[in-house]
Amino acid sequence: MLVQPRKLNVRKLIWVLAVLLAFAAVTWRRDPPGPKHPAWTGETMGTLYSIKLADSPLGRRALQSLQKEVDRCLVEVNRQMSHYQPDSELSRFNRADATQPVAVSAGFARVVRFALELHERSGGVFDPTLGPLIDLWGFGAPGRVAEPPSEEQIAEVLHGVGARHLSITSDGRLRKAIPGLHLNLSAVAKGYGVDEAARVIRARGITNVFVEIGGEGVAFGHNAEGVPWRIGVDTPRPDALPGEQLETVLHLSGLAVATSGDYRNFFTDEKGERFSHILDPRTGRPIQHHLASVSVVARDCMTADGLATALFVMGAEEGMKWLDTWPGIEALFIIREPDGRFACRPSPGFVRLTGARLPAP
Questions:
Q1: Residue 197: partners with Cβ closer than 8 Å, 6 or more residues away
Q2: What ranges do the domains of the chain cover?
Q3: Three-state DSSP string of the chain
């Protein structure tokens, strides 16, 4: 007996295909779960950055998208503030000989505005126009120098620096009063970058995050263990790697920390005298005192970054008094003793704010 072949049910086939396609589309659109506590690192501003999230709600594709957005954010900050990139906003402003106002981005203007405020409140101890002086001492883009500059060279360069020659117009443009004025925002740029990266991440609804760039960081919420983020403060030894030897550990949430010191970036001349990269605008020379480092804790990292530099220039005694004019901001001064040991001197509210346990005197 012959068996007749069944007729193809076109309608049923179309219905099955439609169901399969719909299922595939839903499956494709659904973002597979990402890691609960993702972390990643990268490069920016000539150093490394590190980001850690806790209890992240993001799927894998959303996390990849966030990582790219953070990178774009940091590239933009570098495009604004870098004194190594010839096409950065800062480099273009420095090359401009005219004293006419120069249009800059809102972010760049914001950082300069804060730097000028800090200059005024510190009595000139913080100065964002020390670029030529930094170059003269071999700590800028041109590179190291064979020997320290002479007093005559320092005096000549000092004539062309000073934040009094810099202003911001009402519409956010920058103006230099003297043609040769050069900006260097390295004392606040990393802190600003930290804040911007954290802003991008928190805009995705992430509440538990730690962002760090070159040792400056900000922490929000809690870590993977459900407690405030733990951030180490290095013992200021030039022979120790970052994180290798800690003076104390801070427990931070909703706070930023930045450290300034003389133990990482310095050179020694043929006489054995050491010169650090932190310069005193009043003398044009590297700082020479017993303060080895100062770590500042504030609500945002740009403020902590800038204050750390100003406090280091001032030294522990003057700096502790000046810090009283900044409510809610605390600092840890680490002083180098004559015998080579270190002594911690915290501001009155430092331990209460950070939960740090300090070494016994």
A1: 49, 51, 70, 73, 74, 211, 213
A2: 39-82+188-354, 89-176
A3: CCCCCCCCCHHHHHHHHHHHHHHHHHHHHCCCECCCCCEEEEEECCEEEEEEECCCCCEHHHHHHHHHHHHHHHHHHHHHHCCCCCCCHHHHHHHCCCCCCECCCHHHHHHHHHHHHHHHHCCCCCCCCCHHHHHHCCCCCCCCCCCCCCHHHHHHHHCCCCHHHEEECCCCCEEECCCCCCCCCHHHHHHHHHHHHHHHHHCCCCCCEEEEECCEEEEECCCCCCCCEEEEEECCCCCCCCCCCEEEEEEECCEEEEEEECCCCEEECCCCCEEECCEECCCCEECCCCEEEEEEEECCHHHHHHHHHHHHHHCHHHHHHHHCCCCCCEEEEEEECCCCCEEEEECCCHHHHHCCCCCCC
| Topology annotation, domain 39-82+188-354 | T-fold (3.10.520)
Token pair recorded at residue 239: 């022979």
Return the pLDDT at 27: 42
Give the pLDDT mean for 194-216. 97
In angstroms, what is the C-alpha Rg of the chain?
26
Per the CB < 8 A criterion, the answer to whether 183 and 94 are in contact is yes
- Answer yes or no: is pLDDT of 92 > 90: yes
Question: Could you tell me if 259 and 294 are in contact, meaning their C-beta atoms sit under 8 angstroms apart?
Answer: yes
Report, as an integer, the average pLDDT of 43-70.
95
Res. 176: pLDDT tops 80: yes
Q: What is the pLDDT of residues 321-339, one digit of tens each?
A: 999 999 999 999 999 998 8
Q: Classify domain 89-176 by CATH architecture.
A: Orthogonal Bundle (1.10)
